[in-house]
């Protein structure tokens, strides 16, 4: 079929032009652009929820995951009338707030959706705290063990959290917050957690920023969580051959050593229908008392 074929569809009262619907975006999984847009539609209630009020960065793969890619922060042109943007430091970010906008981006072969940690409505007080558990090796059989140890430490501090696959190689630990702490204050908590675990498990963890100096250690990245930085959005696809999806997990699944590749565009809809959004299971919580505890501990050590 001609690669330049196009069709028009009506989505929530908006007309979208779909180009090259038979183009393979994930050849290994047999996922065409038309299938990809169907999967985005199924994911949209959750993906939109976690991208709303965020500055959005996408990664586009015009020829699918086996082709070249590029990051897109500025809103692509031409821009349909139903697409709204928000300007920040000269960049006009797409506001991902409806299914037509999501499918418009999907038709442009945006295969990954990265959302800012800070919200458009409040850049100073984050509504979640995130620790990125980042392996130094492309294949790391210890990643779930590492995530479990981080979760256990947080639990011992009275902090409830939800693990989430990155869809690539790592795990992110998400703590929903009552928004009264700044990013800098949360970094102090992250530094405490990372330092404690690196000292207790020196053959597993590191807080060394330079990848070339980490060896095979797993990096506890507490610095990524900051204004202007992004995270792969929950339920975003990843541009991987297996069409993986960034997926929140139960802690029991982490302890069972599930594989990141177990969750993909072909099965995520069934999981959501059965389990719902696991990020809703933990209520926003205060962490100011944790900050006070850490400050008290450091003061006691210096005396």
From TrEMBL:
InterPro entries (UniProt xref): LigD_pol_dom (IPR014145), NHEJ_LigD (IPR052171)
Pfam families xrefs: LigD_Prim-Pol
Domain of life according to the entry: Bacteria
PANTHER family named among the record's database cross-references: BIFUNCTIONAL NON-HOMOLOGOUS END JOINING PROTEIN LIGD
Name the record gives this protein: DNA polymerase domain-containing protein
